[in-house]
Amino acid sequence: MALLEINNLHVFYGQIHALRGVTLDVPQDKIITLIGANGAGKTTMLNAVSSILDAAEGSITFADEDINELSPHHVVAKGVVQVPEGRRIFGRLSVHENLRMGAFLRNDKAGIKDSEERMLDMFPVLRERLTQVAGTLSGGEQQMLAMARALMSQPTMLLLDEPSMGLAPMLVQQIFETVQEIRKQGVSVLLVEQNAFMALQIADYGYVMETGEIVLEGDAKKLLNDDSVKEAYLG
Fold first, then answer.
1. What is the pLDDT of residues 115-128, one digit of tens each?
2. Domain containing 21 — which CATH number?
3. What is the spatial order of strands in the sheet that 188-192 belongs to?
4. Global model pTM greater than 0.90
């Protein structure tokens, strides 16, 4: 039984037909990855799930509920939270204030404090930087903050858009290990990633997108060994 079900999704940017009948499932407690070249439509799909973009056709169902018509903050309230490409932290606020912003839909003070402690245990570098202005953090630290901020809302599903972009290889490894840890804590993950090799290594199932369409899907380990995937995305 899928937690998130996307069926025959069509999205337009003006005259551009950005998504062309995309069908995709994310089961509970799984990491599902969506790989593809720049401009394939991966971010568009995440933005449609988050209700940032409207679907022209098709359905998006989360936990058996149609979320197609909901506003973005209502989608977050349902438990679907996106970590956008480029981190999008609040650069002028402190690390601590950024974390608090992640809990803006919550009013359980003790629970928020508990969540903060868990985030600081998961991302120890943030504990050392709590009062620091977030815009002065390194790229890797900003990515960790963006993920921690998203997790402060206690999501059941995390939409991750290019978490490894622009990071040094050692930090990339750390980010992907964190994604696996997040899944162990009962959060399902839909991971959009250009680093296809790393994404397929940690994912349970993968989809390959080209020009707004799913052209290939399957068990992530099988896709890792698929000749067409190797040639196009794994060098």
1. 999 999 999 999 99
2. 3.40.50.300
3. 80-83, 157-161, 188-192, 31-35, 205-210, 213-219
4. yes
